[in-house]
Amino acid sequence: MNAPTILTGDRPTGPLHLGHFVGSLRQRVALQQTHNQFVLIADLQGLTDNGSNPQKIRDNIPEVLADYLAAGIDPNLTTICLQSALPALSELTMLYMNIVTVARVERNPTVKNEIAQKGFARSLPVGFMAYPISQAADITAFKAECVPVGDDQLPMIEQTNEIVHKMNSLLPAPVLRHCKAMLSDTSRLPGIDGSAKMSKSLGNTLHLSAREETIHRAVSAMYTDPNHLKVSDPGQIEGNVVFTYLDAFHPDKEKVAAMKAQYQAGGLGDRVCKNELKACLQELIAPMRERRAMYMQDKGELMSMLKRGTERAQGVTQETLREVKVGLGVPVF
Question: Taking phi first (over 0 means left), then psi (-120 to 50 degrees means alpha), and beta for anything else, what does residue 329 get?
């Protein structure tokens, strides 16, 4: 396929949620029509902070795959593959680790934030510290030019390109490609509790498989404007999670704009806004929930599908590894 190459992926640490959908999944569904797209289920990276609970990662591989299919990713258009079954990725990670300093990884804002969030301190797993290097290996192994990410992942793309530059400088001719981030219109979705980011580890998510009653409870509890006590009171849009979600998911942008104007002027209640969001999310999630349930009925077929995609990815990643090794003078048998 003579088209730009894209790599995206997710750690199988739990079912996917609305943050994944607006941050990357929605883009992937559209881009698979025009790009050569690979989607990586990053089980090895999932183990970097779940090393003592590998069953959690193993159990969630089919869960994530079912979410992909339910969201509209077509395995005939997108190559879906498993990280641990692509040994070239681990070999490239090891090669890159020799040209990246500990100080540089420690400066990565994404890594710093996640280390603080998880409270690792000195119990930090080495694998987690090397996460940006592993991610760089994934991207470069597929020679991806574009990577759909949320804005919190921009430091990872920056570090990947540093590794590309350094490694290419060691080779007789450039092998690896620089990549660029592709940000969605809503690159970071706040959690349903109003915190800065929807995250599985924070427990503030709304899954793509959420049941109707779960959606109802989540939206009913959402943060709005604490000073908007009466319908007639002028309300604030900034920081109002309900309107953030309406912006991200409601298909009628003109209607949302009119609701914002009325809310700010006074005359629109929080309940009306939440009911509009509930209806919007129910319409979005219900068909995905139904498709997902259908796919999950046959986990064996899901894993066979993943195996076929991984086999297609083998040739691509092994060729990149071979080129890097030959360039470095490492024996290739």
Answer: left
